[in-house]
Amino acid sequence: MNAFVSPEPLDVDPAGTVVRAGRVPPVRPEIDRALEPLTGILPTQPLPLAARVWQQAWLRKMVILAALAVVWEIAARWQDNDLLLPTFLQTARALVEGLGTGELLEKTRISLAVLLKGYLAGIAGAFLLTTLAVSTQFGRDLLSTLTAMFNPLPAIALLPLALLWFGLGQGSLVFVLIHSVLWPLSLATYAGFQGVPETLRMAGRNYGLTGIRYVLQILVPAALPSILSGLKIGWAFAWRTLIAAELVFGASSGKGGLGWYIFQNRNELYTDKVFAGLAMVILIGLVVEGLGFRTLERVTVQRWGQAR
User: Which parts of the chain are beta strand (E)?
Assistant: First the structure.
């Protein structure tokens, strides 16, 4: 018969290490190494004034715009045909005259008023679609089906139908604007919602958030970078769709916007005014991007650490 040998008893030292009874674990000697002082490093010097000024983003963008204006002026003088390509100075003069008479300002007001209606309606529709998509399986199927059907369809292609349904008025323009904003914004928003971490979703459910409160308080803040990207894409699509629609159908109750202004002056061969209208469209885009979306990003996603 084999005798049973009990295992050697174990103890725990003050450091929490399990050792055999009667045995002391080895103690590693502490080594204190003195670091050598840093030498040969120059003190931090402030950047030169020119380097500090060049770090301003607005200055770099102004330099780019000035370079484009110089290239434009050189190309127009080399072409030497004002009917085909007016110079930058001629276009600037026509722009100043249009602003001075108030004609360009009035056309801009008309276009922006229509654009704002369609843009806001498109945002509301996209929010409803994506809220339904993240809440139910039917909503997800509905969103994927509608975006696959209508997102590739150019908004300007719907203008003949819009004219039949809504007549010669702002309703037709608002309809095509909603189409141009709704689908890209819905896709960007839904992609942002899908990328929300599961921990945030669980936190919202633990707080008892459901429905619209869950979307507004959990999903929207977490998906805000994607939503802002969708808003910028929707704005660009809406702006170009509006100008194209006004070029085709133009006036509403005898009044048209910037697209109609460009179309009229093209018919009268005032090419400098055509370029002035195009320059106004570009300036509005730069202002909206620089003062609108950049400010919104700075006070939200950049401030919250969601983007650089």
Answer: 10-12, 18-20
